[in-house]
Amino acid sequence: MAFRQALQLAACGLAGGSAAVLFSAVAVGKPRGGGDADARVAEPPTWTGASRPGPGVWDSNWDRREPLSLINLKKRNVESGEEELASRLDHYKAKATRHIFLIRHSQYHVDGSLEKDRTLTPLGREQAELTGLRLASLGLKFNKIVHSSMTRAVETTDIISKHLPGVSRVSTDLLREGAPIEPDPPVSHWKPEAVQYYEDGARIEAAFRNYIHRADAKQEEDSYEIFICHANVIRYIVCRALQFPPEGWLRLSLNNGSITHLVIRPNGRVALRTLGDTGFMPPDKITRS
């Protein structure tokens, strides 16, 4: 039976701890069972209001920021015609490119009984130092750091921030680790309860919609933004951004402290520059725990 669940999620504290944003987040599941009869039938996401493009067809309005979709054509002045339409389109058109750097937290003590006890290991702290040095060496003017509120992400951010003085940082619960969507194919060693997909999936989808989109029309210069969070969150975001089946997120693998670089152009096109890069670390410092 197809699993499709929606949750109205109110997420607070996204910007300086004061803004409240309401998201309608949808997790799309896959049938379970045996045989070809259980093949998944693709359905359009509920937010499109139309049929999903066929396989391999790029949805140019994936972030709901395509200029033409933001204009109420019913209010168009018939007399001014195309000139007015062009002017209104230009008003909504993005001009800048967004560079999104998704950083997985460093190695941590997985045996901590409470979340606050799952602190970075000594090796994890070394990894964070190496990641910070790598980011600093790129010579980019980073605009901000947004990080998960979980202990291992906070500690990773503390270390990386030392190498990027002056870059503001914001904590959010939206980027906390979780189960984004039931993976395909399933794995035997990791089987969360359905309610976890229901709760986490809506939150992680909300994080995607809030943070991953083309630049605002008012943004004049290209931006370079760092998001320090978790493997499941990053893998889901990558699949969604590239319009790959999100159920495939568990087919990807990310090392601790790795850098994933997404580029979002003004026209909404998305490119993956790097996925889980740890080439800047010595081999004996690389882990995936």
How many angstroms does the end-to-end distance come to?
33 Å
Strand order of the largest sheet: 5-4-6-3-7-8
Structural class by secondary-structure content: alpha/beta
Count of DSSP H/I helices: 5
**Percent helix:** 10-25%
The quaternary organization reads as: single chain
Instruction: State the shape.
Output: globular
DSSP summary, beta strand count? 8
- Percentage beta strand: 15-25%
Instruction: Let me know the average pLDDT.
Output: 84
What can you see in these coordinates?
The chain has 289 residues and is an alpha/beta fold. The protein has helices at 81-92, 122-137, 151-162, 194-211, 231-241; strands spanning 4-12, 20-28, 98-104, 144-148, 168-172, 223-229, 259-264, 270-277. The strands form two sheets. The protein has a six-stranded mixed sheet with strand order 5-4-6-3-7-8, with helices on both faces. Strand 1 (4-12) and strand 2 (20-28) form a beta hairpin. It has five helices and eight strands, in the order ββαβαβαβαβαββ. Residues 1-51 have low confidence and may be disordered. Helices cover 24% and strands 19% of the residues.
